[in-house]
Amino acid sequence: MGKKGVRIGLVGYQFMGKAHSHAYRDIPFFFETDANPILQAICGRNEDAVSQAADQMGFASYETDWRVLIERDDIDVIDIVTPNNTHAEIAIAAANAGKHVITEKPLAMTVEEGERMHEAVSRNGVIHMVCHNYRFVPAIQYAKKLIDDGRIGKIYHFRANYLQDFIMSPDFPLIWRLNKDVCGSGALGDLAAHSLDVARFLVGEIAEVSATTETFIKERPTGAMTGGLSAKVEGGEKGQVTVDDAVAIIAKFESGSMGTFEATRFAGGNRNRNQFEINGEKGSLRWNMEDMNKLELYVADDEVGMQGFRTIDVTEESHPYMDSYWAAGHMIGYEHTFIHLLHEFLQGVVHGKQPTPNFSDGLKNQVVLAAIEESARSGRRLSVAEFRDTVKKA
Ligand code: SOE
User: Would you state the torsion angle of the CA atoms of residues 273, 15, 340, 3, taken in this order, to the nearest 10 degrees?
Assistant: First the structure.
């Protein structure tokens, strides 16, 4: 079979726009793929900025209205990298127009939005995916294999914290990530959502949650993002921070494993320390994004006297995705997580096979996020299934 062209329409062109465009370009370079991604059009409201992005990122054309992009019959995929309050409307319209859809995380602003998105992609029979990129770190894929092969046995604990510090200064402005109407929640939906996805991938569904949240800096000068996680103050006015700066969660998995999660943007010195440790009856696993090619493994039946965590360099040809890159010991990075994820998405599009994590996973994650918010608000421990039923009835 020759390669099938898949024409991409990307909505948004900033931090994640760059990550996705770069990944599409690299996929055929590194992977033996059946899909040839064609950067057909990029979309953004500011014409100067979007036309410049089209040039820089290699798109053949641009649009300034996503509705026009969706109507075009030379587009197969709508990829949504705009802020969270736009995901539902764009994704539903794209699915109704018969386009395959991928959206940045979290899937939606609310469970109700997530339900409608899931319904739209299912009814229209299109391929869908949510961009939980950390699942696609080779070390995490390898951890999954070790767990599935029973190498650490029954899992007792999943312990994750996702630590950043980019908003610690009170002078850091009120960007969209701090405005509930635009992003839905703070460290919870932005960071804990990733840890929860990895937890679901490695350990299974979450059954119960109990949580607390805090907003340390309640007012900030108004301003806008200027790059990845940088921003500038504009205007000199102050506005209210309406999301959590930090969240702590105690959880129970359906399997009986215990989960503890912490996500914060106030962990000074931690730029993007997304990490977890898993303790099982036969061993433990540890991983940390700031050293993403390493996986630490403890095996309980190692010889006494030689026991302890060993560090596996997950760069061997035998490791997930790594046979497509360099010789062992030659490291890959953050951008490769998007290459792997979008490669799986495009293979799904070409073969009509639903990849994961998809909107069904995104919706499950959304229910857990909403239950966590409700637990933090009410001070109650919640069953995720019962919470979902109350949302459905409402
Ligand atoms: C900002 O906190 C951010 O870019 C998140 O939005 C991403 O999902 C995370 O991977 C890195 O940090």
Answer: 180
